[in-house]
Amino acid sequence: MKGVEREVINPRGVPNTLQYGFSQAVMVKGGYRVHLSGQVGVDAHECLVGPDLEGQAFAALDNVAAILGTLGGDLSDVVMMRIYIAEPARYDQEGVMRALLARFPKSPPATSWVIVSGLSEPEWLIEIEAEAVLPEESMGLRPVRALA
User: Fold this and answer.
1) Which whole-number Å values give the CA distances from 57 to 80, 134, 145, in the listed order?
2) CA–CA distance, 20 with 8 (Å, rounded to integer)
3) Which strand (E) or helix (H) includes residue 116?
4) Widest CA span of the chain, in angstroms?
């Protein structure tokens, strides 16, 4: 990230979360903070990508990437995520880990995982909120507004 200093913090004395695809903390200086709404496992046509947690996790992360892309950023700009997993998928969390490791192969964001009783639609198994810090240069690009 140009114009943004980012340091991933994974000190000794706390669990090694890098093996699960996220960092204990991320320290950032410079840039603009962007808060993304929760993203779920649907495509641009609001169709569910599949019934499994792993597929939905990849789709939710792809949606995060697409939003950041319109702002001139990408997943490497994500510094914090909150992952909500629906109770029916409580024991399928390895799929989430595989998605995180694939999308954040180095310097992953800090992350919280929360089990919830359910999401807005019963077939949704995961929702991912993200916070990113974009360099000032990228903010010259304005997102294209969707027509309703």
Assistant:
1) 16, 23, 25
2) 15
3) strand 110-116
4) 51
